[in-house]
Amino acid sequence: MDEKKRLQFLLLYERLTSALNQPGDADRAEVVAVLSELCELLRVCKGVTEFYKSPSDEKMGRGEVLCDVDYDGPCKIIWQKRVVTKSMAVVKGTIYSTLDEPEHTKEEIDCIDKVERALLCIIAMNRLINAIEELGFNDEVGYPNLKSFYRRIERFYSDGILSKYTTIMFNLRHFGLINEDVGREAGDVVMRNYVRMIEAMIGGDGLVCRMGGDNFVAIFRDEFLESVLEIMRGIPVAYDKESQRRVLVSSSTGVFPIPDNYVYTDSGSVMDKLIPASKAARLLENDFIIFYDEKITKSFDRAKRIQMQFPSALRNREFKVFYQPKVDVNTGRIVGGEALCRWFRNGKIIPPMDFIPILETTTEICKLDFYVLDMVCRDIMRWLAEGREVVRISVNLSRKHLLDVDLFDHILEVIDRNKTPHKYIEIELTETTTDVEFRDLKRVVNGLQNEGISTSVDDFGMGYSSLNLIREIPWNVLKIDKCFLPVDVDNTESVTSMMFKHVVSMAKDIGLECITEGVETKEQVELLKSNDCFIAQGFFFDKPLPVEEFEKKLGTVYEIE
Ligand code: C2E
Ligand code: MG
Ligand code: MG
Is the CB of 539 under 6 A from ligand 1? Predict the structure, then answer.
């Protein structure tokens, strides 16, 4: 290189480093302009820089390839360097000249080396800063986190388009059970694939972020809401490519479509709407999609109050067991009773529907159920000691109990601690929603069966009870829900009448005792008789009664006329 070229190089090098060292990002136009001049000076036709976050990414070819000066023709490598940074990122530079270019002098190579080192150093630094910034926006397994959600909201807000979007907060229902069923690793795949399905639905400007565990938030354009809610209601998700095995995944979801007149203060204010809506959704068993409105905050506060008051209420014995007679419609005799819980608080009676669904959102309900079972055992033992005509009493167990692997032992422990003869106890359980629950249910019912403790399917016909439930599990009793009981009993052609008739005859054919709940009128009693369903429970005979009233009725006969 002659003096003139040497000077030219120094000037270009100076321009390059100052363009690279701009605050913020490098001045790209200037960098490209200087590089192309440098290429000409140093007889270079192409320069490629590669950046990988780790050597394994490099091996898999997952990285960034930057080509500042390009050339398509055949060329040869004249300089190459690979640098592994302390954080194990890999930066690689490769410089080419055309095939017919005479060999480079040592001085030229030194100049190329100097330029490339400066480039690699700055590129590595910028990329690492970006990577570190990105890390703050993702959780440890790569889901975007809450910070990403806030960033996206801020962006839509500053673009003035926030009200075109809907936000949701969702929790995967029974994900613990899914994990238990398919295994933790496959559970991770289920979660990932479920999120991917949502991502595929909501397009590029939508975003799904994980808040931790199986809790997520998402933002997407309003027009995707219906399709997203479909996924929330339940969708089969494959977790094993080969066998194509699938599980049904659904979510409890709080929804907040951002309104046109929304006064945005900060991204946290959106969370203030989503949190109560999604909590309310988790509280509800059947409708697990809840749109935000002001009332939710109130019912949410009420639920919180009930949860807080529950432990002391249980200690102070504020819960009382009421008994509703089950009556033989032919003889009028009491053949059984159902234990139903009432909460006496400050002189008022709180009905079970006002607190049981709330307690069922945690495992607190189990404490209450065992308390009721214990009270029932004590009452039975007292009745026996008093020489009363004792009947079998059924106790409701929430589905939440199925999470308890030792459920069967726990039930038995309470009954045997009270020395209550097994034949006087019946356990009522409702239908299940997942395969895992079904399996556990089967195990528990079998266990109880072996101990001579009766079991019944409660609310049959409501919700999701399937015929499989009664085919595969050895129940003793089918409790037909009042929704099957025709109101207009004269219309024997109505679908309800037909179904009632056939459900009763099916139950009898498979050898199940059959009882109808919610019998309120004489006509309904007649209908039971004519369909050979001989046991009834309902207001026609009695409401659930305080124990002192119920025990007086033991051994008495109801008049049916
Ligand atoms: P369930 O087990 O299906 O109980 C029957 C419900 O129907 C009772 O409501 C009863 O009062 C009501 N009922 C009885 N006869 C009639 C009638 O002729 N007409 C109408 N319309 N209703 C009738 P209750 O006592 O309010 O209990 C509601 C639900 O709360 C129960 O439904 C049960 O699922 C739950 N529950 C009550 N006590 C307990 C408990 O100790 N543990 C658990 N896990 N759940 C309980
Ligand atoms: Mg019941
Ligand atoms: Mg029922």
Answer: yes
